[in-house]
Amino acid sequence: MKMALRLFFIFITIAILSGCATTNQNLSHGKSVKIALIKYEMARNIIVHKDYKNLANAFKYLEEAKKTLKNDPRVYYLLAIAYQLRGNLNEYEYYLKKTISIDKNFFDAYNALGIYYFGIRKYNKAIDMFTKLINNPFYTNADVAFYNRALVYLKLEKVKLAEDDLRNAIIFSNFSNPLYFKTLIELNIKNKNYLKALKNLNYMEEHIGQSCYTILKKAYCYIKTNDKYQAIMELNKIKEKSGTCFSKKVELLKEIENDSNTNN
Questions:
Q1: How confident is the model at residue 18 (pLDDT cuts 50, 70, 90)?
Q2: Confidence of residue 75 (pLDDT cuts 50, 70, 90)
Q3: Distance between CA 248 and CA 239 in Å, rounded?
Q4: Three-class SS of residue 45?
Q5: Is residue 6 in a domain?
Q6: pLDDT above 70: residue 13
Q7: For residue 231, what is the domain's CATH number?
Q8: Is 80 within 8 Å of 45 (Cβ atoms)?
Q9: CA-to-CA distance for 46 and 52, rounded, in angstroms?
Q10: In the predicted model, is pLDDT for residue 23 greater than 50?
Q11: Which of 154, 149, 208 is CA-nearest to residue 186?
Q12: CA dist., res. 242 & res. 2, Å (int)
């Protein structure tokens, strides 16, 4: 799973009120903040573009920015990503935790930690990270957390919990993400719950629309439930005469024909 690097910018506005003198100290601090932000952006640009040749400079810029932007969670989060690029996963984990300790609502750090723990097989810790996101009322991408937690449950073979999370992912995405539907449907088919898969396929078509995927999967499920007539009716919806969708249609039609010949 690809982790998105989403960074937030700080816009500094220095207000000078008429009739009020601005001290040299305040001006100096404002200048320091501007310089620190410029260095932060320089580091961000290197890291976002995975410019490995200049990665050492990114660390330098961030360390310099950190001296002025004290306890700014974005600096620590960016340091974590930099260490990930360097391949130092211990420091990656440390700085993600540091980010969260500074800002309890820095959601990307929770998600990144969850994915990291999944990758090193610390599944309970991964579940804990995604659960914290799910339980946070300020987190606006609950569908992502439900989906990621579902993947952990699948790894642990906790099918019922995975199904529940996938359904929640679908709901919280406003029924708009085909990946969530497909993952749930493939899980149904893997466990030979063909009727449940058909129900979810109809649900997917209702919200997202009919596609080659839904037609082929519905036909496959009908074959598995010995409803060859419905399977053929579904396959006849594919009008193309070439391409991957058509070739898979031909494969399923041959399967139906072979099964009929065997029964006869």
A1: very low
A2: very high
A3: 13
A4: helix
A5: no
A6: no
A7: 1.25.40
A8: no
A9: 8
A10: no
A11: 154
A12: 32
Give yes or no for residue 2 having a pLDDT over 50.
no
Residue listed under structure tokens 């946070």: 136
> Above 80 in pLDDT, residue 17?
no
Do the Cβ atoms of 186 and 159 come closer than 8 Å?
no
Helix axes 107-119, 123-135, angle to 10 degrees: 160
Taking the chain, what is the end-to-end CA distance rounded to the nearest angstrom?
47
Tell me the residue type at 242: S
Helix 228-235, helix 212-224: angle, nearest 10: 170
> What share of residues in the chain are helix, strand, coil (percent, to 5)?
75, 0, 25
User: For residue 145, is it within any domain?
Assistant: no
pLDDT band per the 50, 70, 90 thresholds, residue 28 = low
Structurally, the chain folds into a number of domains equal to 1
Domain that holds residue 204: 181-264
Say how many C-beta atoms besides its own lie within 10 A of residue 259's C-beta. Answer: 13
In-domain check, residue 58: no
Residue pair 213/185 in contact by the 8 Å Cβ criterion: no
Decide: 86 and 62 in contact? Cβ < 8 Å: no
The mean pLDDT of 10-22, rounded to a whole number, is 25
Q: Please answer whether residues 97 and 82 qualify as being in contact, where contact means their C-beta atoms are separated by less than 8 angstroms.
A: no
**pLDDT at 31 (0 to 100):** 87
Is pLDDT at 127 greater than 80 in this prediction?
yes
Pick from 111, 102, 80: which is nearest to 93 by CA? 80
